[in-house]
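Query protein
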Amino acid sequence: MSTSRIAVLALLVTLFAPGVGARAAPDEDAFVAGYATAILSREFGLEGARVSVVHGVVRVEARRIPGAEREKLEAVLGGIPGVAAVELTEVDGTAPPQVPGPVAAASDNGMLGSRGLELLPKRELFDPLLADPRWPHFAASQHFYLDDDELTRVAGVSFGESIPLLGFDMPGPGRGELGFQAAVFSIFDLDSDSFDLVNSDFLVGLTGSWRRGRLSAQARFLHQSSHLGDEFLLRSRVDRINVSYESLDVLLSFEPWDFLRVYGGGGALLRRDPEDLERGLAQGGFELVSPRAFLAGHVRPLLALDVQGREESGWEADLSLRAGVQIESPSLLSQRLQILLEYYDGRSPNGQFFRRELEYLGLGAHLHF
């Protein structure tokens, strides 16, 4: 190739390459914005989220970005081809986020302004209470009862879930949600020849939840009934109590920092069997969840304390303490498996034994979807 041809080719590249690059950058930013928006909507269900992309810098603005999710969001969004950096910002829920930049997209599961009705929302507005011994979820634990005359080694299992049914805009600030809770809580005597079923509690109810940023609340109408296991009933000859009631309670939760959640509330028993059950209920607690996950993002430490009081027991505190690790995917929020050491001291949460004092140590596996 002649020197003149080389010179002409170099001139053409010099003249036209910057123009090509300038035209390609917006297209690449648009691709990244769409990709990131799909991830936020389908995988994270991030409330009130909006994405903007300028020269490969992804900016996410949302009304709620829990601390445990920041690390995952940065890792997942940073792995999209063409992303140079990720910036996450929480905005006030009273005003729509202001998104700079020429390329922006809104998540279809977190639209700005009015979102209207949303059937079967991906995520609950009110997060589960990690140390509440009667919060519906899937779990299996082994408990060692201390100074109990009848039981020593006990297996505790639960099968249940909280299911959001309908999300909607509130007349004022925040987002509302109607849901459903159902669960079975059972304990088995591991020292018996056939691992006798001792007690089963059945819980079903309706929930109404609300969230604005780091503040959330939930009202619940619940029915609970309790039943003794046949083998235990035959061998012990205890007098069976038909424990069954409906209750109404309200809980308020606040997350002042990414790693801390505090909550409290109360309620009352409505219809009661036996009828001499006192009505008053109170509950409070806190949860410490590490904003950082270890072992390549798979393990997250946590500590949770739940304290409940009942008028029936003279408002003496029933204390439930759980500590351990949460095993999770570094890129998804679903299917969190928690391995927790457990300690309980107070009136028994097992319906047929609600008047007995109970203290135990245990180890459990708890699954949250």
Observations:
- Residues 6-24, 93-102, 106-114 have pLDDT under 50 and may be disordered.
- Residues 268 and 347 are 17 Å apart (CA to CA).
- The first strand starts at residue 50 and ends at 54.
